[in-house]
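User: Predict the complex with iron/sulfur cluster.
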Amino acid sequence: MAKPKLKQHLIKRSWCKGCGICVEFCPKHVLELDALDKAIAARPEDCICCRLCELRCPDLAIEIETE
Amino acid sequence: MAVKDYIRERFFPHLWCPGCGHGIVLNGLLRAIEKLGLSKNEIVMVTGIGCSARIAGYVDFHTLHTIHGRALAFATGVKLSRPELKVIVPMGDGDALAIGGNHFIHAARRNIDMTAIVMNNRIYGMTGGQFSPLSGCGVIATTSPYANIDNDFDVVELSKAAGATFVARTTTYHVKEISDFIRKAILHEGFSVVEILTQCPTYFGRKNKEGEAADMLRRYKEITTPIGSDAKKENPDLIERGIFLQKENPEYCSEYNAIIQQAMKG
Ligand SMILES: Cc1ncc(C[n+]2csc(CCOP(=O)(O)OP(=O)(O)O)c2C)c(N)n1
Ligand code: SF4
Ligand code: SF4
Ligand code: SF4
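Assistant: Here is the predicted structure with iron/sulfur cluster placed in the model:
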């Protein structure tokens, strides 16, 4: 199976509570919290689409869309 | 169906605190249901009272949000009248094993086909951080400011001894195990227990100086190990994760039906 290729990080800003779990455990340090404490994909080019952020988000706020 | 099709989006963002592990349990549960490909009409979720119990509001299945400690009693009624439905009963540690302890052991003893999920944050979250029967010695809680002196239950041992036929444990760090174990528990015919260690950063974390939600998750990684690992032999204090028991025993609804058939013959 070919490696999934990232299309985009879908982050629901109104659902994200800025807990930082996705940021802390992303193996490629792709994510950060912005000035409003919302998750953002700061380095999307490094994402390996492992979906760990999506699976660990307690608020169902982040989704990995692949091509 | 996608995960978003199984939730009631109108109630999001949910009311759990930032970083609350209950949301990760919800996330893992939804993945399990998605993988099983169940339709929303086949599932009944029954909960009692607690932060954990609020989970029933967020899923778009048949849901009953009942009274503290009694979720399994309501679930037993549902399952006996509609045995073809999949019954899932998420409970907090207080809900399941303090006020609800008696229902818990007897539902296990009957081996009635349902999936009990113990969302174990070792504290009463909803009412402000009192200790529970799963807190254990040394824990600081609102009701034990100088450290708790009550021993805790081991949910796995308790469930096995009471008669459950599927017993598993994992944590909110180990998200793939959450969905894997819940999926297997739902497929298992009999009383299934999945204990999930889940962080309450607001009360347990703050009172016991365990840091932020992410620190509590990292701790779950450090203090647990797969069943039978070498690490456990070296450090007996590690908490084991995995499926501890999976066995076939007569299931309560089937036995009940057999008795009805027998009685009908006169
Ligand atoms: C009969 C009854 N007794 C007590 C309460 C108060 N009460 C509400 S939730 C709760 C405990 C919640 O703790 P737990 O079940 O561990 O769930 P959590 O909130 O930590 O998820 C208690 C004692 C109640 N609602 N009903
Ligand atoms: S895990 Fe979810 S809620 Fe927490 S910061 Fe990341 S996107 Fe936001
Ligand atoms: S999918 Fe994996 S690599 Fe990509 S942002 Fe999420 S956790 Fe990081
Ligand atoms: S009080 Fe604890 S259990 Fe309740 S929502 Fe907040 S973090 Fe979760």
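Residues A 16-22, 39, 57, 59, 61-62 surround iron/sulfur cluster (ligand 2) (CB under 6 Å).
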